[in-house]
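Hey, can you fold this one?
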Amino acid sequence: MSPWYKLQNEEQADSPSLLIYKERVASNIQKMIDIAGNAERLYPHVKTNKMPEVVKMMLAAGISKFKCATIAEAEMAAMAGAKYVVVAHQLMGPKVKRLLAFRQQYPDVFVGSLIDSASVAKEHNDVFGASGLVSDVFLDVNNGMDRSGHALDGDILGLYQLLHQLPNISCHGLHVYDGHLRTPDFESRRHEVEDGFVDVQHFLEAIAEAGLPRPIIVAGGTPTFTVHALHAETYCSPGTCVLWDWGYGDKLPEQPFEYAALVLTRVISKPKAGFITVDMGHKAVAAENPIDKRIRFLNLNNYELVGQSEEHGVIRVENWDTINVGDVLYGVPFHVCPTVNLYDEAYVVENQSVVDTWQVLGRKRRITV
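Sure. Predicted structure:
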């Protein structure tokens, strides 16, 4: 029996290409729901898949809320049928007007965004107020990642109060992303996550003492998903687990997800003994990591990726004599999210055959809004 990833109709797949194994996507979605306990606790991040059909699969499984990184991803999700999306960025300047335009174009879709600054909150209030609308927001909390969010200091309660005072702002909850916590040992990671939430709990107590509405909490990403899932009051927002990748697969051993997205490439040259070249350059697999952390080939042993340019990947191999120009290699990206973003479309695989193509619509900077 051939390996699970090998296509029976390889000749129908151009290279380099992105392969989406539909049965495995469905399995990963169900595992995500099982870990959360129910679909209502999930806010999956669509930045990983960026495909309307994957969003439709999650909707069919009972998931109704989604996070996204861009307004275009939010529109992609809305076009797929999602009625609740949160743009996990603080939007300012022209993006506030784009967010307003999204709200006007999709009036039946809840669209939220993040706020960590009083000045941006006032900008949202003014722009939405001028159109007689309300901007739905979540207070972005920095509990240690130091990338965005308001620090858990003496000023954060005042910002939360402001978000409840501005007439054209509606604050629904807290967004707490602790993506910096990736210790492989689960128990160690669990302690780090829970220690990082001590000050968040103190903030919730201060909110209650001030007589302000208790917020919902949307927390974490894929690395901390299995910890936040243990706490029933928290909503979880994993993303990578829908497709999975080599990086998290090795780093998060307790998570049961399967590789559901591969890069297919072909040997295009054997330039000298011991070396092969494939049509997998920087444009085919995410290149933000060192060269030894870009792709792991499933059907090649004893090799080393030694060089990449835009269209080429050069690999040192031991079994050079047994490899032919035209051979197909299947690789797992180290980081699947930016790898998906490199492709306009993906081949859909069922029963080891290409059966369809899906547009990676969410990779656009702008769709219509």
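Residues 181 and 245 are 18 Å apart (CA to CA). Let me know if you want another pass with a different chain boundary.
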